[in-house]
Structures are given as structure tokens and as C-alpha cells.
Amino acid sequence: MWQQKKTSTASVIDDLKGDQSWRIFRIISEFTEGFDRLSTVQDAISIFGSARLKPDHPYYLKTVELATLLSQNGFAIISGGGPGIMEAANKGAYQENQLSIGLNIELPMEQSPNPYQDISLDFRYFFVRKVMFVRYSMGYVCMPGGFGTLDEFFEALTLMQTHKIYPLPLVLFGCEFWSGLVEWIKTTLVAYETIADEDLQLIKVTDDPHEVLEVMLAHRRWKNQQREQAKQRQKNVCVELLCHDT
To answer: What is the pTM of this model?
Structure first.
């Protein structure tokens, strides 16, 4: 079974063979293009979820509803650019004429770009793509999904827990789907003291799109205050420099 899996994906795995110096240039080019094309993006929400859910699935429809609601309130939408929940997220923004961004990844299966993207970027390397999500998102929403969704969820949690990024809202949408994971975190990770109880405060679980909106609006107000304070500090520094020169 493992050998069959290994053989079927051998042609698409970018392993460690060949000249590593050329791979560095490819990585740099992906970072450069991502930073360049997303440089003006502000107030964007990243929505993650399964590529396998069909357009008639309740969570697909809820994702369209949520993305529409966020878009109507001035938030751009970022997704992984593929089908399923990712398509639903981009669709909700696209239909509202709000900026819709897809960060596509080369995969042996599942990933084909959805048609609802104003900005579409293609990545070979997951870690470059992850940087773009973190750098240009002011909030995460994880709809039901698989390993990729869990990866983004725990990555964001780890970065916030270790103070590598500023706090951002991390919402798990779908109480029935996520309740088992959250309960396991409480009863196992907290119980074994491998994480602190206050780390759970970083997570919000809900079934209500309007509750997600309120969380994001509150965070945007806080972030705008931080921006204004940063501008004021910069202004004060400039004034001090001018006074010093005179």
C-alpha cells in the first residue's frame, strides 16, 4: 500500500536531488512575487477548509454565506485557491465585488484553481504559501477540513503561542465538526500540561456567521488603533529628528 502510494506520487515530489542552488532561486522568486502582488492587501480574512466538499454541501453553502457577509463589511478574502470550501470562500467575495485572493499550491490531486479569484498566485513550496497567509491575514476561519486545514490551524496557534506573530482571531466554524478536537485539547493537552489553559483563549468555536463577523470587526478596530499609534510614534520620531537638526 505504502509502495503504491510512493510510486504514484514519485513524479510530482520535489525531493532533494539535483542542484540545490537553483531551488533557492525558485524559492526567492515565489517570495518576491507573493510580496509584490499582495503588497496593497489590508483587512483580509483567510478561510480554510476541505477541497472535497461539493457545492451542495451545507458547509460549502455556509462558507459562501460567511464570505459574502465579511465582504459586505469591507474584508478581502484569501483562500487556498482550490475547489470545495476554498472555492466557496472566493465565490462569496467575488460575487460581492470584494477582493478575492487564491494562494494555489501544486498538488498531485485535488488542487485545481477555482474561477473566483481576482489575484491568483501559484506556489510549489508550502512554507512560502504559509508566509503569505500569515503576512496578509488579519483573521483565520477554519471550516471543516482535513490535514491541510489542521496544519494551518495549529501553525497559527503555535506562532501566536510563541509570540512570533501578533494575535489574530482564530475561528473554528462548525461546532459539531470541531467539538471533538477541542475537547481532546482540553482533556488531554491541558490535562498533561503540555499547553497552558489560557492558550485555549486563542480559539473561538461557532456555527454563526454573524458571530464570526463580530469577532473580525472587533479585531479590526483594535488593529486600526495599533496602526494609528504606530503612525503617531513615527511622527513623533520625525519631529524629534527635525528638532535635533535645527
So the answer is: 0.88
